[in-house]
Design goal:
This protein is 33% helix and 28% strand. With 150 residues, it is of the alpha+beta class. The protein has one domain: 2-Layer Sandwich (Double Stranded RNA Binding Domain), CATH 3.30.160. It has a six-stranded mixed beta sheet with strand order 1-2-6-5-4-3. A hairpin with a 6-residue loop joins strand 4 and strand 5. Helix 2 runs parallel beside helix 3. The longest helix is centred in the C-terminal third of the chain and has 19 residues.
Length: 150
């Protein structure tokens, strides 16, 4: 019983989840910012340009353009994100790294699974949900002010 508890604790520390979001590297609690820059990395040849465009638009909207968005455009934090092939369950996920302006990684997350169909297509709501998960995590762990823009 004791060994099982230790194994479970070690697994929780290596990659904890928040709803369906996988936290691959927990956020540095000292790093707080008001502005962010989004940077799509590694244009994957296994993802259509339309899907990449939808993800980029969804991330921009969720981080900056909604009335409820916490961040403003700026250089306090770089959010580098990309599609990755999901390790379990098939399909894709969106991985995001939160970095200082100097490139020091302050946290890393992976979105919930985005299933693909036989033609490699995905459902638009799943892309938007991935952007929401990543932005929610960023706001909860990196946003400096308690008060949001009005």
């Amino acid at each position: 019983m004791r060994k099982l508890a230790l194994v479970l604790a070690a697994a929780a520390m290596s990659a904890c989840t928040t709803d369906n979001l996988v936290v691959a590297m927990p956020a540095n609690s000292e790093f707080r910012v008001r502005s962010a820059n989004l940077d799509y990395q590694d244009p994957a040849d296994y993802v259509s340009p339309e899907i990449v465009r939808l993800l980029q638009e969804s991330m921009q909207e969720r981080f900056f353009d909604r009335r409820s968005s916490a961040f403003v455009r700026g250089s306090d934090m770089n959010v580098r994100y990309r599609f990755v092939v999901a390790e379990a369950g098939g399909g894709l996920a969106v991985e995001a790294e939160f970095q200082t302006p100097g490139g020091e990684v302050q946290g890393r997350v992976r979105s919930s699974l985005i299933p693909t169909d036989a033609s490699g297509g995905v459902e638009n709501p799943r892309i938007r949900a991935a952007a929401d998960e990543i932005a929610d995590y960023a706001e909860a762990h990196f946003f400096l002010a308690a008060r949001r823009r009005q």
